[in-house]
Structures are given as structure tokens and as C-alpha cells.
Design goal:
Length: about 210
Amino acid sequence: MALRSGMRRNHHKNSCFVLRKPERACTIPAMNCPYRRILVAGSGGAGKSTFAVELARRLSLPVVHLDKLWWLPGWKERTEAEFDALLATELAKPEWVIDGNFRRTFARRLERAELCIFLDYPESVCMDGILRRAQEYRGRTRPDMTDGCPERIDSEFREWVRTFRSRVRPEMISAMNESPVQKLIFTSQKETAGWLSSLGQPDLSS
């Protein structure tokens, strides 16, 4: 179904963007975020990893980048069995912020998550994001990527980002609709930044 159908904003203080359909989605006060196992998903170039790192910092949670679990140095892929074993270890932990898509295991991650945040940005924003990232990390490895995998953008990845909303997003939204997990869907970087800012800073006094 079209994600925008049946959606509206909740303007209560300290509340976030709310998806009214499916019915199980609800308002989550940002200043009192009780969730300790959080998924972050969305198109390449949306800024999932950057957001996940900052969210984890503010909530004092460990962060897990799925790209680091999948890729070996030199852009070599792990086998699905190897990846699944690493993922199972992380999912079994009591606290985490996990960013990445990897549709094959999305439903499995939703089963363990308490909250799923989807960065639902326009294609143009995501394409700009991957281009800026390529320029920033040219010849270097991103912090959220396995060492020995210098930043690259090939035609296949560009096409994946370009067609994410038509080919990938519907399946992920469907999985979210079928899951009882709480959901936050942000449609702009401004919305995302505003909610993140309202979380405040971690208490480092203890």
C-alpha cells in the first residue's frame, strides 16, 4: 500500500512523526525514549549510519553496522551463513542500535527490536548523500564500514539507490506493517534532526 495513505502528523509537544497506519504504530515521546533495541533502516545515502551513531550516543547504547558484518576487507562478501551467525550474536544482546537494510534478515531483526526507525527520504536527497559521502571518503574507509573497504560508488549501487522507493521500500514497509514493533518514519532530514535533538545529551555523571 502507499505509505502516504492514511498518514498525518502529531503535533503534541515532544512527539515525533507518527504513522497512523498500521494501527499498531504509535506516538513515542522523544524526551522519554525507553527503547533499548532499535533498528534504523532506509535508502543508501539517507544517513542511516550517521544517525545510528548519534542516536546510540544519546541513549548510551552500542551501535552495530550491518555493513561491517557483511563485508570483509577488499570488498569481499561473507557467506550468508557467516553473516547470519554474526547477526544472531548481536540480536541476542539486550541493547543495541542496528543500522542497515539487508532485506533477507529484516523480519528477523524486527522480531527482536523494540523500535524501528525508517528514514523515508526522497530519491534526490539520497543520491546527493551518496555523492557527498564518496567525495568525503574518497580513497578511505568510512567509520561504519569494514577496514580495507575504501569508499566506492559503482553503477549498480547508484541504480539501487535510484530505484529504492519502487523496488525495496514497499517490501520493507510491508514487513514493518506486519510487525507489532513500534515505528517511527521520518520523511525529511529536518524531522529526523528535530526528534534526535529533543532526546538531549547523555548523562555522563554516573
